[in-house]
Fold:
Amino acid sequence: MEPFQRFKKSNTEGNLWIYVLSLAKETEICDEDVSRLIFEKFGFLPSGLLVKRVLFLLRRGEYIKTEKYQGKKAYSTTEKGIAELESTKEFYQDLLQKV
Structure:
């Protein structure tokens, strides 16, 4: 795998939590819509199994919370999750200045 391809993969599927937290901070996201929303907004389609695993880990770590939205299971980002997103943005901004 070429260096850029490896970098791109590690910053998309390899860090899916960033995209889930980002989507769920804007509005509640239904369980079944996560993959589609990531594809529409960020341009890559993660596997359903990977999405379920990431949602489980984010929920367990209290970065997202489960809610009901239009009668369906949905998620929204907690304050703890928003803080993680802010830390990630700062890290990437710092990295971009150094590269």
